[in-house]
Structures are given as C-alpha cells and as structure tokens.
Amino acid sequence: MSADIAVLGAGMHPWGKWGRSFVEYGRAAAKTALADAGLEWTDVRSVVGADTVRSGYPGYVAGATFAQALGWQGARVTSVYAACASGAQAIGAARAQILAGLAEVVLVVGADAAPKGFFAPAGGERPDDPDWLRFRVLGATNPAYFALYARRRMALYGDALEDFAEVKVKNAAAGALNPYARYRKTVTAQEVASSAVVADPLRLLDICATSDGGAALVLTSMEFARSHGVADPVRIRAVSTVTPTYPRTLLDLPDIATDAVTASAPAGGPFRASIARAAYEEAGLGPEDLSLAEVYDLSTALELQWYEDIGLCGEGEGAKLVREGATALGGRIPVNTSGGLASFGEAVPAQAIAQVCELTWQLRGRAGERQVPGARAGITANQGLFGHGSAVVAVR
Amino acid sequence: MERNRTPVVSGWFTGTEEDGDFRLLGTRCSACAAVFFPREDAYCRNPHCPGGGELAQTPLSPRGRVWSYTDGRYRPPAPYVSDPDAPWEPYTLIAVELEAEGMVVLGQGAPGVTVADLAVGMEVEVIGGVLNEDAGTVWTTWRFRPVEPAGVTA
Known about the structure:
The complex is a heterodimer. Chain A is built from 14 helices and eleven strands. By secondary structure, chain A is an alpha/beta fold. Chain A folds into two domains: 5-116 and 213-235, Peroxisomal Thiolase, Chain A, domain 1 (3-Layer(aba) Sandwich); 130-205 and 237-395, Peroxisomal Thiolase, Chain A, domain 1 (3-Layer(aba) Sandwich). In chain A, the strands form two sheets. Chain A has a nine-stranded mixed β-sheet, with helices on both faces. Chain A has a two-stranded antiparallel sheet with strand order 5-6. In chain A, 62% of the residues are buried. Chain B is mainly β. The N and C termini of chain B lie far apart (45 Å). Chain B folds into two domains: 1-12 and 62-154, CATH 2.40.50; 23-59. At the A-B interface, helix 5, helix 6 and strand 5 of A face strand 3, strand 4, strand 6, strand 7 and strand 8 of B. Chain B: It holds the Pfam family zf-ChsH2.
C-alpha cells in the first residue's frame, strides 16, 4: 500500500492584523485551496479544523465552524488542538482518514485572529495549569523562553547577536517576495541591532509577531488525484506527531522545570531532533535529500537550533550555516523560503498548514521569485506547547 | 494590620528569606527514585518505573549551576501581578540546573541580580523572597542568586 497522499490544493488568506473573525480567514483560505484543486466544497467528504483557543467556543470546535461558514453539506468533521502543532495534527488526521479509506477528499483548515502583544494564558484563577503558573509565579512570557535558548547557544556554541540578526535579514528578504506575508520589507542587520531588547539577548526584530491569517489544504488519495487528471501531484510522505521521551531534559514552554535524571539517564537525544527523525524514517529519506525546509522561527536563534535538529548540520554549527548563506534563497539548502514566522507572525493553528502550502508551491515549481530550482523534497518542522511534535515531509 | 505571608503556590518550598534554610520541595518516587518539581503527588511519571511506590516530599538541592538566563524588559500579562501605574522594572529570570537532580528549574533572580551579574555555568543558590504584596497578603516565592558576590565570578 502506498503511504502517500496527494496535495491537490493549497490556499491562504494573507497574514496581517485585519481585525476580523478567524472564520472569515479560514473560509477564504478554504475557497482558494478548493479553486486551486479544481474541486467544489460539495466534493469534500471530510473537513478537519485546526482549532484556536482565542476565539471562544467556535474556535474550540473549528472544524464544524468552517463547515458551517462554507455551507452545511454533511461532510464528516474533525476538530483538533495542539497549539502550534495543531496544523500538523489536522494534516495527520486527514491523512489517516484517506489512507484508511474513510474519505477520498479532505479539506484541512486553520485560521486565527491573534491579539496584539504577548500571548497570555486563559483567564481565571487556575493554579493547576502550568501555563497559568509560569505567568503568575515567574512572569515567564514566550519570548523569555526563546531568550533562554538564545543565551545558552551563545554560551555553548559562541553564536553572536549578528548571527541571529542574519536570520532575520534572510527571512525578511524571502518574505518580501511572498504576497501572503504580513511583513514585506527587507530588513538590515543594523535595523535588528537597533530594535528594542525584549528579553536579553533578543530584540524585537529577533522575535516573531502574533498575526491574523488562514491556511488550507485539499488532500486526497493518490487514486482520486489520478482520476481527477493530476498524474504527478505533490505528495505528503510523512507526518510526524511524536511526543518527548522521559526524562525530558530541555526546558520547554510552558514548563517551570525539566524532568530530573535521578531515575534514568536521558536517551534518544533532544525532543526537537526526534520530531524530524521520525518524519525522515517514515518518509524513507534524510536531510541530504532535501531541496528546502520550513522551520518554526519563533525567534531568529531558534531557527539556527532547528538547522541542527533537522540534520542540516552538526550540533553548534547552525550559525556557520546562515553565515555562509547556505540557508538563504540561492543557497545549498534554503530554509524558510516563505519568509518564515519572521515575515508572517504567528497565527497559531494556521501556521503548520501554511508551512505545507509553501512546500506545495515550491514542489510544483510555482513559487515565483522565491522558487528553489528543481525542488523535489521538503520538510516542515514545528513544536506545540506541552510536547506536541510536528513535521511533514512532502515530495514530488 | 499584620499581613499574612503566604506562598504563591502551596507546598513548593519551605523556609523564609530570613532563616537561611529555604528549600524548594519536590516529591520522590520510592520505587524508581524519580524526582518531580513542581511536585507530583498523584502518580509517578517515569514510564520505566516498576510501580508500587509512594511519592514522598523531598527537599531539592539548595544549589545548582546557571543553565541560561534572561530578563523581562516589558510588563508580562496577567496573572503576573504588577502595578500598572508604576514604571516597569525589569526582572531577571534564571534557569538553574540543580546539583543532585540534574533538573533545570526556572526562577526569578534575587532583587538586584541582573543579567550582567550572570554567566552560564555559574553557581547559584535558592533563597526565599517576595513576589508581590496586596492589601491582605505578602505572597512569597523562591529566587536564585550567585553564591559569590554578584559580579565577582567569571
């Protein structure tokens, strides 16, 4: 049995601060993806929504919310939430339904309308919720965690602030070429250096914004794609949604502490690396086969970490890679050709889907000025709060 | 009126900033020796634990080494408590790898400790402190500070 599924359509609503409902962004993205696939909404037999927690009850059950906005037509529905990894969970659920023969055509949608500024925990007095506690007890915002990782890299590997800035410069240059990006201006290293420090050593332009946006995919069985006249579609070959292994020794959002190593020694390497490893194993390929990658650059420094975690270079060599220009457009292995979170800002449930939209356009050879010549394989990587792995391998 | 001194989270630490015997409190599984902080009282989370153990309260190492550090230059959102009318005073956040447990615990730096006083690998100790005060209560917490006087250690 082929484990491949076809990406027949990809669509987005542009990222920004539009001040409208997330439902509107999701519906627009879905319509665009359906048109791209040459299908009608009524052809869809299953809809999977990646949920948002910021938009009340409709956001918690986004699958049905999008189905209602597109017009009830009786399709099977699934709603998933895994924070930043929600989109990969949605793709994973759609893929399982297709491979199990439960549905031939599945629409995956994620959209968000994010508030300005720091993400805050859900309201109320909830001392049993680690996400609430880290704010109450420590004031530990998301950028504080990004800054801890950045400082650690500087101490361990000698990364410099200029290396972090170079990631922003690179991603802004790519984002300037992407009509769906929120920020479409090039940025200089000087501009990064002169932006305000948010959490030492990271500056405002090292940290991704929070955005409104929507992304959607039309996924089908390989047989359906062929019968629809698409002989050689972009294929999703792997979806990794792994969890960490105990003891987890890398401090992660929203935890106040890591696991102790008193009972057993850490094994299997860090969580982020295990996310990519599972995707490579499932796809039967490795980092040397990649044409491009989309990784979750919540901060500039974190993008360098991902280079190492997805195997583009050895531990501690991420900064060297960006300094050499290897991960820029035109480089050996371009990363975040979409412009990344640096150019989009985070629309949480849409983001992992948006990563796959970019792979789709690249693998089709339709990425315009951002095109990676001859792109054949790509990986997306991401991580959701509390231990949700997220990686997708797509090939052509 | 005397205000109550109340831990911001009950059962996470013992002692006060004055008595010099302040300790973070975790729990330890008697079957597999796994240690948990924040304390886990209901079940052991080690998947290789043989089972049948009890989770007993245990004080954590009073010292450890700086894993990393940062600060908060902007006011965090609620439920962090701060006076919206007062100018924002950045706080230091330190991730400390505890000596015996090998676990990394986050905490705010003691008052006056800034990022300029810290380095990855530096030895620090845990002490008691005050997180915030309101009409009826002084909310207490844990903080970290360098073992040597600030600025002396490389």
